[in-house]
C-alpha cells in the first residue's frame, strides 16, 4: 500500500447543509493527497433516496468550491453504482463468504425480545448461516456476510492506534437487502476499492464501522486501505457541535464573511498541529500535514480564534484577491452587487482598512464611506453634529482643501491650519469631517477617507453636510 500513489476521498451524504465537520474531513483528505502528489476524490453517498436532495448535493459542490478544495475527476454518485455493489454481494455469496438469510423481521425481533428478557446478547445469529441450500425456501432473502465467531479483529489506525474488536461482537451484517439494493456498509467498501482509495480519513464515529467493513475486504481478498479516524469537532462546552453553538454549515461561514483561506487555515488546526504554528499558508499546510499530527481528543471550535486567523489572512491578502472574494460574499448574503464606480472606490480604500478588519462584512462596514453616494442618511450621532459650530469649522477648512495638492501631508497641513487658527484639537475638526464624509462618527481616518474620495467628492460631501446644518 505504501508504494501506491496516495488516493483519498470525501464521501458526504446529501441530506442537508454541508457541515463544518465534513468540511474539516474534506480538508484533511485534500491536504494529505495534495501534499504527496496524490489524488483527492469526491463521492456523493446518495443511496438514502428518501432524504437525499439535489439541493443538498449542490450545496456540497458549492461548499467544496468555496473552500477551494478541488477534486480529481467527476463527483461519483453512489446510487448509480448499485449494480456493481450487487455484483460484489453475489460474488461473496458464490465464494461462500456470504449466505442467504430467509429470516423475517418478525422472527428477528422475536429473537431479540427473548434475548433481552433473558439478559442475553441481542446480536442476531441467523440459523441460515450454515443451512444446506437444498433447504432454502422459495421466499425473499437478504445476503449476509459471514463474520468470524472467534478471535479478534484489529483495526490498525494511524490516529487511534491499534483498536481491538472481539469477533463475537460482530454480527453477520446484511450486505444486500431482500429488494436487491445494497446496504451502506457494502457500498462504501466497494466504492473505495474501485476508486483506488489508499487512505480512508474520516470521523472517529465511523471507527466501529471499520471492523465490519474489513469483513468485506477479507471476503473479496482486497487490500485494506490505511485507516485514520479523526476526532469530532466539539463546541466550546465540550459537546458535539450543533446549532446551539451557532453556525455549523459551510454556507453559514461564507455568509459570515470569513475568507476561504482563513477557514482552511483554521480548520486545519482543529485536531491537527504542527508545533506551535497557528497562521500558515496552503503551501505550508500541504507540506506539513501528516496523520501523525492529528490528535485523538475532540477539537473545540473557537470563534475568537477563527476571527483572529481571519484577520491575519485579510491583512496579507492582495487587494485584488479580496475584491474577488468580496463579490462572492455579497452574493452569499444576497446583497446587491457593487457598481463599477463603487468597486473602484472600494479598491482605493482597501489598503487603509483591511489591516483592521476580521471579516468581509467588517471590510464593507469600514469601507461604507467609499461606496455610498449622496444623498445618504446620517446616523443619529452624525446628524447631531450638524449646526453652526461644525459649519464654522468646515467653512474655514473648505478653502484650504480647495487649494491643497491632495496629498496626505498637504491634507494634514490643511486640517492643522484650522486647528491652529481656532486653537482646537484634532478631534474637533475630525468630528464634523467624519459626519460629512461618511454620515457617521465611527469611521476610518479622515485623511484616508479624503484620499480615497478625492477633492471633488470630498468638497461635495462637506457642502451637503453644511447645508444640513443650515437647514436645522
Automatic annotation (TrEMBL):
Where is each Aminoacyl-tRNA synthetase class I anticodon-binding domain found? 324-464
Q: What is its EC number?
A: 6.1.1.17
Q: Which residues cross the membrane?
A: none
Q: Where is the Glutamyl/glutaminyl-tRNA synthetase class Ib catalytic domain?
A: 6-307
| Catalytic activity from the UniProt record | tRNA(Glu) + L-glutamate + ATP = L-glutamyl-tRNA(Glu) + AMP + diphosphate
Q: What is its main location?
A: cytoplasm
Q: Where is this motif: 'HIGH' region?
A: 12-22
Swiss-Prot/TrEMBL keywords: Aminoacyl-tRNA synthetase, ATP-binding, Cytoplasm, Ligase, Nucleotide-binding, Protein biosynthesis
Q: For binding ATP, which residues are annotated in this chain's numbering?
A: 243
Renumbered ranges of motif 'KMSKS' region: 240-244
Subcellular localization is given as:
Cytoplasm
State the superkingdom.
Bacteria
Listed GO MF terms: ligase activity
What is its quaternary makeup?
Monomer.
Functional summary from the UniProt entry = Catalyzes the attachment of glutamate to tRNA(Glu) in a two-step reaction: glutamate is first activated by ATP to form Glu-AMP and then transferred to the acceptor end of tRNA(Glu).
Question: Which PANTHER family would you find in this protein's record?
Answer: GLUTAMATE--TRNA LIGASE (PTHR43311), GLUTAMATE--TRNA LIGASE, MITOCHONDRIAL-RELATED (PTHR43311:SF2)
Check the record and name the NCBIfam families matching this protein. gltX_bact
The UniProt similarity line reads: Belongs to the class-I aminoacyl-tRNA synthetase family. Glutamate--tRNA ligase type 1 subfamily.
Protein's name in the database: Glutamate--tRNA ligase
Give the organism, scientific name.
Answer: Celeribacter arenosi
GN (gene name): gltX_2
Amino acid at each position: 500500500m505504501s508504494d501506491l500513489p496516495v488516493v483519498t476521498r470525501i464521501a458526504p451524504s446529501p441530506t442537508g447543509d454541508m457541515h463544518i465537520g465534513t468540511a474539516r474531513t474534506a480538508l484533511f483528505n485534500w491536504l494529505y493527497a495534495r501534499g504527496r502528489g496524490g489524488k483527492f476524490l469526491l463521492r456523493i453517498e446518495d443511496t438514502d433516496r428518501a432524504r437525499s436532495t439535489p439541493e443538498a448535493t449542490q450545496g456540497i459542490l458549492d461548499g467544496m468550491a468555496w473552500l477551494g478544495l478541488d477534486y480529481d475527476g467527476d463527483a461519483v454518485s453512489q446510487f448509480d453504482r448499485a449494480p456493481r455493489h450487487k455484483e460484489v454481494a453475489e460474488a461473496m455469496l458464490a465464494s461462500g463468504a456470504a449466505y442467504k438469510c430467509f429470516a423475517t423481521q418478525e422472527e428477528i425481533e422475536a429473537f431479540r425480545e427473548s434475548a433481552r428478557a433473558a439478559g442475553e446478547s441481542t446480536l442476531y445469529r441467523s440459523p441460515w448461516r450454515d443451512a444446506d441450500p437444498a433447504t432454502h425456501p422459495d421466499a425473499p432473502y437478504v445476503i449476509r456476510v459471514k463474520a468470524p465467531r472467534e478471535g479478534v479483529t484489529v483495526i490498525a489506525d494511524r490516529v487511534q492506534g491499534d483498536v481491538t474488536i472481539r469477533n463475537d461482537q460482530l454480527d453477520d451484517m446484511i450486505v444486500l437487502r431482500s429488494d436487491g439494493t445494497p446496504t451502506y456498509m457494502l457500498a462504501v467498501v466497494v466504492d473505495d476499492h474501485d476508486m483506488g482509495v489508499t487512505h480512508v480519513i474520516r470521523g472517529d464515529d465511523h471507527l466501529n464501522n471499520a471492523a465490519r467493513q474489513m469483513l468485506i475486504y477479507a471476503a473479496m481478498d482486497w487490500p485494506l486501505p490505511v485507516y485514520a479516524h479523526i476526532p469530532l469537532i466539539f463546541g466550546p462546552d465540550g459537546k458535539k457541535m450543533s446549532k446551539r453553538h451557532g453556525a455549523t454549515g459551510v454556507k453559514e461561514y461564507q455568509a459570515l464573511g470569513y475568507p476561504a483561506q482563513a477557514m482552511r487555515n483554521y480548520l486545519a488546526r482543529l485536531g491537527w498541529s504542527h508545533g506551535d504554528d497557528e497562521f500558515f499558508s496552503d503551501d505550508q499546510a500541504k507540506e506539513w500535514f501528516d496523520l501523525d499530527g492529528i490528535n485523538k481528543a475532540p477539537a473545540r471550535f473557537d470563534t475568537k480564534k477563527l476571527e483572529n486567523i481571519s484577520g491575519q489572512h485579510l491583512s496579507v491578502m492582495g487587494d485584488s484577491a479580496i475584491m474577488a472574494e468580496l463579490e462572492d460574499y455579497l452574493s452569499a448574503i444576497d446583497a446587491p452587487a457593487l457598481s463599477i464606480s463603487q468597486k473602484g472606490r472600494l479598491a482605493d480604500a482597501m489598503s487603509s482598512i483591511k489591516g483592521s478588519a476580521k471579516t468581509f462584512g467588517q471590510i464593507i462596514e469600514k469601507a461604507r464611506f467609499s461606496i455610498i453616494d449622496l444623498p445618504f442618511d446620517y446616523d443619529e450621532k452624525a446628524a447631531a453634529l450638524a449646526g453652526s459650530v461644525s459649519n464654522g469649522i468646515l467653512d474655514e477648512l473648505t478653502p484650504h482643501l480647495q487649494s491643497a495638492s491632495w496629498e496626505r501631508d498637504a491634507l494634514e497641513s490643511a486640517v492643522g491650519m484650522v486647528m491652529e487658527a481656532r486653537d482646537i484639537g484634532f478631534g474637533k475638526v475630525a468630528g464634523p469631517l467624519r459626519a460629512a464624509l461618511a454620515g457617521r462618527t465611527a469611521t476610518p481616518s479622515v485623511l484616508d477617507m479624503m484620499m480615497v474620495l478625492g477633492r471633488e467628492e470630498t468638497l461635495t460631501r462637506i457642502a451637503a453636510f453644511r447645508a444640513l446644518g443650515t437647514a436645522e
